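FAQ: What does the model actually see?

It sees only this:
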Amino acid sequence: MENNEKLSAERSLKIISEAIEQNRNEIMQNAGMPMVFWGILTCVTAVVVWFLWQTTGNPSWNALWFAMAVIGWFVMAVKNRKYKKKPTNFFNRVLMVSWISFGLFALVTAVIGTLSLDSAVYTVKLPITTVLILLLGLTSLITGLVLRHTAITIFSVASVVPANFALMYPGPYESLALCLTALFMLVIPGIIINRQFKK
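And it is asked to produce this:
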């Protein structure tokens, strides 16, 4: 009797572990393309903002980041309509909440950072790019840990380097730091995931 109960408990744990691993694999199969898409969109926008800001000396070109967000969300919404909605599991919900939280925090940071340019009210400017890089790194770290993906986790921790670069070289070069961050935290891990799941 005890042996049957023990076997039943072990079998249940095995089934649960297999279900968890299957959920992770399902998320990974669909995670690569959005990461590559957002990473490339961020890199392209960063280079355009850097070039225009460097050429004209006008930081107002940073408004293109808002346009990028609108274009990105529109493209993803259209793409997601084509696929039938799959039931969401725990990991899927954790990642969705993490990335939505990142988007909201990034928006609030951009708005407050823009307001902090008013030297009549604020004595110090908020380093928007540095904060965004660290927020992206933290969200990417959560993604790497939830999916147990080493490359995502390592690249996320390394986000401190471009964040420091953005503080050292304020101005147009901040955009290049953000480009580097997107390349190493979104594009490269996304390509790695795609290659893993094509095999």
